Task: inverse folding
Protein backbone atom coordinates (compact mmCIF):
# COMPACT_ATOMS: atom_id res chain seq x y z
CA UNK A 1 0.00 0.00 0.00
CA UNK A 2 1.39 3.39 -0.90
CA UNK A 3 1.35 6.57 1.16
CA UNK A 4 -1.44 7.77 -1.12
CA UNK A 5 -3.58 4.79 -0.10
CA UNK A 6 -3.13 5.74 3.55
CA UNK A 7 -4.48 9.19 2.81
CA UNK A 8 -7.76 7.70 1.56
CA UNK A 9 -8.56 6.81 5.15
CA UNK A 10 -8.67 3.05 4.54
CA UNK A 11 -7.60 1.18 7.68
CA UNK A 12 -4.31 -0.67 7.26
CA UNK A 13 -2.10 -3.19 9.03
CA UNK A 14 1.64 -3.96 8.98
CA UNK A 15 1.88 -7.66 8.15
CA UNK A 16 4.45 -10.42 7.81
CA UNK A 17 4.56 -14.21 7.57
CA UNK A 18 6.84 -16.06 9.99
CA UNK A 19 7.65 -19.28 11.76
CA UNK A 20 6.93 -18.66 15.42
CA UNK A 21 8.96 -19.89 18.39
CA UNK A 22 7.45 -21.99 21.14
CA UNK A 23 7.51 -20.58 24.69
CA UNK A 24 10.26 -23.09 25.57
CA UNK A 25 12.37 -21.96 22.61
CA UNK A 26 11.84 -18.31 23.54
CA UNK A 27 13.00 -18.90 27.12
CA UNK A 28 16.09 -20.86 26.00
CA UNK A 29 17.12 -18.23 23.44
CA UNK A 30 16.49 -15.36 25.87
CA UNK A 31 18.57 -17.11 28.55
CA UNK A 32 21.41 -17.73 26.10
CA UNK A 33 21.23 -14.09 24.94
CA UNK A 34 21.42 -12.81 28.53
CA UNK A 35 24.59 -14.87 29.06
CA UNK A 36 26.25 -12.84 26.30
CA UNK A 37 26.32 -9.96 28.81
CA UNK A 38 25.48 -7.38 26.15
CA UNK A 39 24.69 -3.73 26.78
CA UNK A 40 25.00 -2.76 23.13
CA UNK A 41 21.76 -2.20 21.23
CA UNK A 42 18.13 -2.80 22.13
CA UNK A 43 17.16 -6.38 22.98
CA UNK A 44 14.18 -7.70 21.06
CA UNK A 45 11.47 -8.83 23.52
CA UNK A 46 11.50 -12.63 23.66
CA UNK A 47 7.75 -12.62 22.94
CA UNK A 48 8.68 -11.28 19.48
CA UNK A 49 11.19 -14.02 18.58
CA UNK A 50 10.36 -15.48 15.17
CA UNK A 51 11.85 -16.43 11.81
CA UNK A 52 10.44 -14.15 9.10
CA UNK A 53 9.32 -15.85 5.91
CA UNK A 54 7.98 -12.82 4.03
CA UNK A 55 7.44 -9.21 5.02
CA UNK A 56 4.31 -7.74 3.43
CA UNK A 57 4.55 -4.27 4.93
CA UNK A 58 1.49 -2.07 5.01
CA UNK A 59 -1.70 -3.64 3.65
CA UNK A 60 -5.24 -2.32 3.58
CA UNK A 61 -7.62 -4.28 5.80
CA UNK A 62 -9.79 -4.89 2.71
CA UNK A 63 -6.90 -7.01 1.34
CA UNK A 64 -6.85 -9.31 4.37
CA UNK A 65 -9.35 -11.92 3.03
CA UNK A 66 -7.34 -12.26 -0.20
CA UNK A 67 -4.07 -12.55 1.76
CA UNK A 68 -5.57 -15.27 3.96
CA UNK A 69 -6.92 -17.16 0.92
CA UNK A 70 -3.55 -16.94 -0.87
CA UNK A 71 -1.72 -18.29 2.19
CA UNK A 72 -4.22 -21.15 2.53
CA UNK A 73 -3.33 -22.28 -0.99
CA UNK A 74 0.44 -22.34 -0.45
CA UNK A 75 2.16 -25.66 -1.13
CA UNK A 76 3.66 -26.70 2.21
CA UNK A 77 6.57 -29.07 2.95
CA UNK A 78 4.28 -31.89 4.12
CA UNK A 79 6.00 -32.31 7.48
CA UNK A 80 7.19 -30.14 10.36
CA UNK A 81 10.06 -27.86 9.40
CA UNK A 82 13.30 -27.82 11.39
CA UNK A 83 15.75 -24.93 11.21
CA UNK A 84 19.03 -25.12 13.14
CA UNK A 85 19.95 -21.65 14.46
CA UNK A 86 23.65 -22.15 15.07
CA UNK A 87 25.40 -18.95 13.96
CA UNK A 88 25.61 -15.57 15.69
CA UNK A 89 26.00 -12.77 13.13
CA UNK A 90 26.11 -8.98 13.03
CA UNK A 91 24.17 -7.48 10.14
CA UNK A 92 25.83 -4.07 9.79
CA UNK A 93 23.36 -2.47 7.37
CA UNK A 94 20.38 -3.55 9.46
CA UNK A 95 22.24 -2.75 12.71
CA UNK A 96 21.16 -6.10 14.13
CA UNK A 97 22.62 -9.02 16.04
CA UNK A 98 20.94 -12.18 14.76
CA UNK A 99 20.86 -15.94 15.10
CA UNK A 100 20.99 -17.65 11.71
CA UNK A 101 21.34 -21.16 10.34
CA UNK A 102 24.63 -22.33 8.80
CA UNK A 103 22.50 -24.25 6.30
CA UNK A 104 19.08 -23.12 5.11
CA UNK A 105 16.80 -26.15 4.70
CA UNK A 106 15.53 -26.65 1.16
CA UNK A 107 11.97 -27.00 2.51
CA UNK A 108 12.25 -23.54 4.10
CA UNK A 109 13.39 -21.96 0.81
CA UNK A 110 10.55 -23.73 -1.00
CA UNK A 111 8.00 -22.44 1.51
CA UNK A 112 9.27 -18.86 1.17
CA UNK A 113 9.19 -19.10 -2.62
CA UNK A 114 5.65 -20.54 -2.57
CA UNK A 115 4.49 -17.67 -0.33
CA UNK A 116 6.11 -15.09 -2.62
CA UNK A 117 4.43 -16.61 -5.66
CA UNK A 118 1.03 -16.80 -3.94
CA UNK A 119 1.17 -13.14 -2.84
CA UNK A 120 2.56 -11.74 -6.11
CA UNK A 121 -0.87 -11.43 -7.81
CA UNK A 122 -1.99 -9.29 -4.83
CA UNK A 123 0.82 -6.80 -5.42
CA UNK A 124 3.21 -7.99 -2.73
CA UNK A 125 6.73 -8.50 -3.96
CA UNK A 126 9.88 -8.72 -1.86
CA UNK A 127 13.01 -6.95 -3.02
CA UNK A 128 14.97 -9.19 -5.39
CA UNK A 129 17.54 -10.56 -2.96
CA UNK A 130 18.43 -13.91 -1.49
CA UNK A 131 16.30 -15.05 1.42
CA UNK A 132 18.38 -15.02 4.62
CA UNK A 133 16.55 -16.68 7.52
CA UNK A 134 17.32 -15.21 10.92
CA UNK A 135 16.01 -14.48 14.39
CA UNK A 136 16.81 -10.95 15.60
CA UNK A 137 18.27 -10.73 19.12
CA UNK A 138 19.23 -7.01 19.24
CA UNK A 139 18.35 -3.94 17.15
CA UNK A 140 20.54 -0.81 16.89
CA UNK A 141 23.54 -3.05 17.43
CA UNK A 142 27.06 -1.78 16.77
CA UNK A 143 30.25 -3.74 17.28
CA UNK A 144 31.76 -7.12 16.54
CA UNK A 145 30.13 -10.52 16.97
CA UNK A 146 30.24 -11.16 20.73
CA UNK A 147 31.97 -14.18 22.18
CA UNK A 148 29.45 -16.70 23.50
CA UNK A 149 30.30 -18.93 26.45
CA UNK A 150 28.24 -21.66 24.80
CA UNK A 151 27.76 -22.09 21.05
CA UNK A 152 24.34 -21.28 19.63
CA UNK A 153 22.45 -24.51 19.00
CA UNK A 154 18.74 -23.96 18.74
CA UNK A 155 16.44 -26.27 16.76
CA UNK A 156 13.41 -24.35 15.64
CA UNK A 157 10.83 -27.02 14.85
CA UNK A 158 7.71 -25.58 13.32
CA UNK A 159 4.41 -27.31 12.66
CA UNK A 160 2.78 -24.24 11.09
CA UNK A 161 3.49 -20.78 9.67
CA UNK A 162 1.72 -17.65 10.84
CA UNK A 163 0.51 -14.29 9.53
CA UNK A 164 1.41 -11.62 12.08
CA UNK A 165 0.38 -8.02 12.52
CA UNK A 166 3.02 -5.65 13.91
CA UNK A 167 1.35 -3.18 16.25
CA UNK A 168 2.99 -0.89 18.82
CA UNK A 169 6.14 -3.01 19.07
CA UNK A 170 4.23 -6.27 19.56
CA UNK A 171 3.48 -9.02 17.08
CA UNK A 172 -0.05 -10.36 17.03
CA UNK A 173 -0.87 -13.66 15.27
CA UNK A 174 -3.82 -13.29 12.90
CA UNK A 175 -3.92 -16.80 11.37
CA UNK A 176 -1.76 -19.85 10.93
CA UNK A 177 -1.54 -22.78 8.51
CA UNK A 178 -0.14 -26.27 9.10
CA UNK A 179 3.06 -27.29 7.34
CA UNK A 180 1.51 -30.66 6.62
CA UNK A 181 -1.91 -31.49 5.26
CA UNK A 182 -3.67 -34.73 6.11
Result:
Amino acid sequence: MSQGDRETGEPFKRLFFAVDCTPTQRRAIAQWRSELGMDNGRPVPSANFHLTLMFLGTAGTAQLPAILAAAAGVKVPGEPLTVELDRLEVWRRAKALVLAPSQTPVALRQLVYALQQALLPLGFAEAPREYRPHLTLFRDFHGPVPEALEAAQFSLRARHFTLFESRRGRYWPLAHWPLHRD
